[in-house]
Amino acid sequence: MTFQLGSSLLDACVLAILEKEDAYGYSLTQQVQSVMDISESTLYPVLRRLQKADFLTTYDQPFQGRNRRYYRITEQGRIRLLELLNEWQIYKQKVDSVLIGGNLDG
């Protein structure tokens, strides 16, 4: 995608993915990459920030002799996701009104 997208949209994508199911870092990166260009090294600071804000928790699970760190959305994370989804709808309507036409009233 050629559009540069901000950290709020990245947060929304991460939280939306984790609302569906817990995921480990590499898997999460792959899913986010399906909608935006991001590397694992970019995603891990985002995950730490979301965890520090109590939007995510982590747990480890053994996998092929190693531990995988899984991320899980918290109740506060679900609330934040709803806020971000609402903000996204407003933003999307405004952009659509410019790009496609129509009115800003929705």
From TrEMBL:
> Any idea where the Transcription regulator PadR N-terminal domain is?
14-81
Enumerate the Pfam families for this protein. Answer: PadR
Source organism superkingdom: Bacteria
The record's section on PANTHER family has: PADR-FAMILY TRANSCRIPTIONAL REGULATOR (PTHR33169), TRANSCRIPTIONAL REGULATOR RV3488 (PTHR33169:SF14)
Its name, as the record gives it, is PadR family transcriptional regulator
User: What is the organism field in this record?
Assistant: Lysinibacillus contaminans
